[in-house]
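Pipeline run #58 for the internal structure catalog. This entry was flagged by the ingest filter as a single-chain record with no existing model, so it goes straight to prediction. Upstream metadata was stripped on purpose; only the residue string is passed forward. Reviewer on rotation: M.T. Logging verbosity set to normal.
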Amino acid sequence: MLRKVLSNYERNLIFLRFLYLLKRQNLFEQLYLLGSVQNVLNRTQPTLPHSIGSSEEFMLVIVGYLIIIAAIMGGFIGGGGHPAVMFQPFEFVIIIGSALGAFICGNSFSVIKASLAQATGTLKASKCDKAYYLELLLSFYTLAIKIRKEGLLSLEDIIDGPQIDTIFTPKIINDHHLLEFIRDNLRLMLTGVDVGPLEELMDQTLDTHHEDGYAPIKAVKGIADGMPAFGIVAAVLGVVHTMESVSLPPAELGKLIAAALVGTFLGVLLAYGFVAPIANLMEERLEASGNAFKCAQKGLLCCAKSVSPTMTAEYMRAMIPFNMRPSFSELDEQLKASKGKL
């Protein structure tokens, strides 16, 4: 009660101050007070927890690349090296072109397409953040309440109909693979399948999902493993060119030898400084996605066993990684708000 009175007092005080500044036409102070008003208003509005945004995720990747380049080139220049020597465009053509050709030869079209999608997806925010998991818990909480009140058969018209958004939140609906996994197993539950076979079938589905998701990662790791070898190929070709130019002055031969050695340098740098980190990040995203599926599996099994809605959400919450797991109070607040809308 006291907090409510203080909030009303703050609002009135800021509003009166804002009216006074309107007469003085102080734009900067007006903008500052507008922000203060918004902060006061937001104190009483419960919101879903925020997570790292796509721009911040993108910046992490870019900052990492910039640190690599700055450390290597800074050390080279600091030691008296000339950066112009490192610019060897044809070495890039040999290394990147050969690695790309080997990548295309060694993978199917579906794997190539998935590899490009996942690699470029690392520049975006991971979908499996704290807000995502909280929406997943709220969705299964709503699902468990509906099953308890109306029975499993009440889901028959909802699973494949547009009413699916009355149970699942937008983030879950937009995750087409996870939603299809949930729908398929709800259909099996409607047929009366036992919990044991249902869990075994879901385990097989998750294993297949992990194998399919790891194929693009394996392909990208293959590029990283092959680039140092293609760098050696570029260096050998540079040595061959140097040997056929032995009639040139020593200064010119020195430039040719330096260009050849750059090939080895670029192959190792591109492999372990640029491609391998992307593969590692892809693998991390796959593990996060797999954990979301396991969390949904736990929720489905709880619904099949007629576990209470609150305990269903708690069982699922226990499977969420600690850094993305909603606290008990956060979940309880959202469950109470969700229950009031049902």
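catalog note: Residues 88-342 form one domain.
catalog note: DSSP finds 13 helices and no strands in the chain.
status: ready for reviewer M.T.
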